[in-house]
Design a protein that fits this description.
The protein is an alpha/beta fold and about 325 residues long. It contains 12 helices and 12 strands. The protein has an 8-stranded parallel beta barrel, surrounded by 8 helices. The relative contact order is 0.14.
């Protein structure tokens, strides 16, 4: 079992934006020293949840503050990017990091964010498909030559080739059996953010399709995403997690509230307790967290646990204390899974 962090870099009630970024880079350094596999950032816009509105900028900084930690996106929202600029940015940060970039791509989960970019959410799938095709072509061959409905790029040379060939590892967020099948056929690593029963079904389908579509190939990263906070006692941990997750929900729902919408899946829970009951979060003492994650990870069949360990208005001291307890008292209990 390997471990990683997914970070929305929520701007909720942070002392200053500058201090916020410095604290996240310090937190990332601790993950690097602890031997975590990866640190994955999200992309959101026009919302406090958009602390990492430009993933490439943050990852370039993170590359200078880490040595072995892999740095990734979950995800680049492709309809907000022009493929020419994005392929050059990816090539640059893979070179800057010495080949430590992992790439997750998505359509953009919040339609209102796309509309601020002048993108009709109905066109998001088509734009996603064309952008991804252009990016992978450019990274792999050094040229983008593409004629589509949304992009027409004629024989454009790409000089910012990545260290990793033909391109950095690819990731996909799986939310259905169909997406699990698609990810396996395309050779993606995956992350599931659903409760154990749903995640297990998606992962089983993914493994089945992978074995038939890619016989003999080694297993990729198969991850589940959970919100995790470790305290000295259950009560101490729950107090922090409840408060911080409440602020996270305000940020998560910012645009939904502004436009009178209701989140469909993530962000629909009323509080941290509902998140935990639904199997997507745990807060407690090291013993409590270790037991919960052991049961969860064993049940779903994952080999990668990617955690929200810094969320909402959590202070640097709180997230650092939680990480320290996790590394010293939880991680050793789970590493052999």
């Amino acid at each position: 079992m390997q471990f990683g962090v997914i970070d929305h870099m929520d701007l909720s009630n942070q002392p200053s934006v500058q201090a916020h970024y410095e604290n996240r880079l310090r937190f990332l350094e601790s993950c690097d020293r602890a031997g975590f596999y990866g640190y994955h950032v999200t992309e959101h816009h026009c919302t406090p949840l958009g602390g990492c509105a430009s993933p490439s900028v943050f990852l370039a900084a993170a590359a200078q503050r880490s040595k072995t930690l892999r740095l990734g996106t979950l995800v680049y929202a492709l309809p907000t990017h022009h493929p020419m600029r994005l392929v050059e940015e990816i090539g640059m940060i893979d070179q800057i990091s010495g080949g430590r970039i992992d790439l997750g791509f998505g359509r953009g989960s919040v339609p209102m964010e796309l509309e601020y970019f002048g993108v009709d959410p109905k066109n998001a799938r088509g734009i996603f498909d064309e952008t991804l095709a252009c990016v992978l072509q450019g990274l792999s061959t050094g040229t983008i030559d593409f004629q589509g409905e949304h992009f027409q790029i004629r024989d454009a040379p790409v000089f910012h080739r990545p260290v990793q060939k033909p391109h950095p590892p690819l990731w996909y967020g799986v939310h259905s059996l169909e997406s699990a099948e698609r990810a396996a056929k395309e050779g993606f690593n995956i992350v599931c953010n659903e409760p154990a029963a749903e995640s297990r079904a998606y992962i089983e389908r993914f493994k089945s399709v992978w074995s038939s579509a890619r016989p003999g190939q080694p297993s990729p990263k198969i991850g589940v995403s959970r919100s995790v906070f470790v305290g000295r006692t259950d009560d101490e941990a729950l107090d922090v997690a409840r408060r911080a997750h409440g602020e996270f929900l305000k940020s998560f729902r910012f645009l939904h509230t502004r436009f009178g919408k209701v989140p469909k899946t993530s962000g629909a829970e009323a509080n941290f307790d509902e998140l935990a009951i639904g199997g997507r979060g745990v807060a407690g003492s090291p013993r409590t967290v270790a037991a919960s994650l052991r049961s969860d990870l064993t049940r779903v069949g994952a080999n990668y646990c990617v955690m929200r360990m810094a969320f909402g208005d959590m202070s640097f001291e709180e997230m650092s204390s939680s990480l320290d307890l996790f590394v010293k008292q939880v991680m050793p209990e789970l590493a052999g899974l």
